[in-house]
Amino acid sequence: MDKQNYVLCRKFYLTLISAENLPKVRKFFKSKVYAKVSFGGDKKTEQRIKADKHGELNPVWNYTMKYTIEESSIIHYGLQLVIKLYCQSKLGDRYIGEIHTSIKDLFDYAYRRGGSANLSLPMKKGDAETGAILKFSFRFGERIQKKKPGFWRRVLLPGACTLLRVAGLATLGVDVPVSFSGKLDIVDVDKLNEK
């Protein structure tokens, strides 16, 4: 096996357990609370869990998600786990609050406890704490090797996207909506549960 074509990764299992004392964001109807989980707010890593229709301001989910994360993003600061809570509404979902925490901090905390842990973190809305608590558990798996993206994905695709945007601007005077983040995927969503 050619080690230059592989990158070290770890599986990451995250279970959203529950939330307590959420602020009421709807006046007249039941609160049906769901969560969106992502890494650094990257839409490609975002997973949404179903709303709890019974717990209202104290929802319970016990929903597990699975990811593959590059080892370099686990052992160095930078990659953030972001969990945002929303209340479902036919007139537009209402934002409740969120937590941000470093994957490195989670890894260090879990490592001292055998690779897995439970946490209860205070939720914030902007810079202010909401008084709510989000409970979740997580586990890091053993190191695995993942094949690096090919030459097309690493070099040619970003170049082709840039070329299309420049050509669109030059010929049409319009920014063509072709996007590439410029980053290689350091987090992969592994489908564990159906939505």
Care to describe what's here?
Residues 1-119 form the C2 domain. This protein has 3 helices and 9 strands, in the order ββββαββαββαβ. The chain has 195 residues and is of the alpha+beta class. It has one domain: C2 domain (Immunoglobulin-like), CATH 2.60.40. The strands form 2 sheets. The chain has a 5-stranded antiparallel β-sheet with strand order 7-8-1-4-9. The two termini are 36 Å apart.
Task: Fill in the keyword field for this structure.
alpha+beta; flat; 195 residues; five-stranded antiparallel β-sheet; Immunoglobulin-like
Uncertain parts: 178-184
Largest sheet: 5 strands, antiparallel
Q: Tell me, briefly, the overall form.
A: flat
Strand content: 35-45%
How far from one another are the termini? 36 Å
Mean pLDDT: 82
Radius of gyration: 20 Å
Number of helices: 3
Helix/strand class? alpha+beta
- What is the ordering of alpha helices and beta strands? EEEEHEEHEEHE
How is the largest sheet built, in terms of strand order? Answer: 7-8-1-4-9
Specify the CATH homologous superfamily.
C2 domain
* Name of the level-1 CATH class: Mainly Beta
Stated plainly, the CATH topology is called: Immunoglobulin-like
> Any idea what the CATH architecture is?
Sandwich
Overall helicity: 10-25%
Number of strands: 9
How many domain modules? 1
